[in-house]
Amino acid sequence: xxxxxxxxxxxxxxxxxxxxxxxxxxIILPMCNIQTVPGDMTERGCTFAGxxxxxxxxxxxxIQLVHGPIGCAYYTWGTRRNLSDVKLHRKYCFSTDLTxxxxxxxxxKKLLKSIIEAxxxxxxxxxxxxxxxxxxxxxxxxxxxxxxxxQEKIGIPVVPFHCEGFRGVSQSLGHHIANRTLFEKVVGTKxxxxxxxxxxxxxxxxxxxxxAWIVKPLFERMGVRVLSVFTGNAxxxxxxxxxxxxxxxxxxxxxxxxxxxxxxxxxxxxYINVSLFGMKQTAEALRDVGKFFHLEENADKVIAxxxxxxxxxxxxxxxxxxxxxxxxxxxxxxxxxWIEPMRELGIETILTATTFxxxxxYEKIMSKAKPGHICIDNPNALEIEEYLVKLRPxxxxxxxxxxYLTYKLGIPFINGHSYEEGPYAGxxxxxxxxxxxxxxxxxxxxxxxxxxxxxx
Length: 456
Known about the structure:
By secondary structure, this protein is an alpha/beta fold. The protein has helices at 47-56, 100-105, 108-121, 134-139, 143-154, 172-185, 211-222, 257-267, 279-292, 296-321, 333-337, 339-344, 359-368, 381-391, 400-408, 426-441, and strands spanning 2-3, 19-21, 62-67, 94-95, 127-132, 158-161, 199-205, 225-231, 247-250, 271-273, 325-330, 348-354, 374-377, 395-398, 413-415. The chain has a 7-stranded mixed beta sheet with strand order 1-2-13-12-11-14-15, sandwiched between helices. The protein has a 4-stranded parallel beta sheet with strand order 4-3-5-6, with helices on both faces. A 4-stranded parallel beta sheet has the order 8-7-9-10, with helices on both faces. Helix 6 runs parallel beside helix 8, helix 9 (279-292) packs antiparallel against helix 10 and helix 10 (296-321) runs parallel beside helix 16. The protein starts with a strand and ends in a 15-residue tail after the last helix.
């Protein structure tokens, strides 16, 4: 393993330890989970974004109130497609709209008034989640006391999240804060009406484009009862009984392992890590769950049914994609979740990058990477551009921020953050994923591009 300093980073040599080339027998992980170097145009989000945007936001029947300036409330329904089956969801934007006057005199009265007003407008809400932004941390509003006062007035839970954006080095701390808050204030506050020996929670599944609606029935067909999905399409009422599951499985192992560990430590409920992307990994996850509940035959039956239905589609797309090379740039876990599914399609991942990966994320990437694989922690746009030009992958899986840069360079792009036409999880979802890659890579539009732009 060697570290690399791209040409674009010559003015900021501190970036060198964050970029490595995989060299078996001499493994060095990228430096990660530290403050971004001043001057480096990071693409990271803030702690508030991780708390509300990833973990808290998908809960569907609560008022998601942003306590801060109106600009912080930008992230609503349109930024990430966490689908739900009720009207009250994050497509509504609630904010206390703090101004300079609030900074001088405090935002407490405005927060209390906003909670009561929102509840009057949406009485069907089962709870209110209040997210503190940077300004609130600086002026020192006592959100705990205000939320307690509001809860007594409106009669439903009002949960404060202390997720001021300046805390932590990235959105990753926001995930942790959301996990801890929900564990301490919600989980265990109510018992389920009934329990069975086969109760399980799916943790770290956020129902992007309907992922949860694809994977949940797989386990139910095995005879497992899914007590709660944390937090994709989850009702508030789904969260308190999580402590009565017999097993937790963790899909997003960066944002949600925290609550699985806390439930294990307090309630002695084990958890296992799974990957529900790709045919092989999904089958392995079902077998692991089947083994735990002694439902091995049921698991094998479901797997056989799914493979009979969908494997032929994967074989078809493999013929069209074999030999292609790709970049994967995601928040963290999908960078390693998707290396093996790409190989099922005959595709080799030659570069991975994460926005907020920790040491264990990079260990998982390196365990799957081939020699010469480039791995970048917290890349900036110039680094992405330089490597796209130098290595010329056949396609790039990233987020919306990278989409148009990639197109300008004449390289096909897949939105891995919110998907093109998902869901992408499970057996059926993998067919969708393969189809979208095929559409992007084999589109005739690329023949009409005269000359890709060169890096300046």
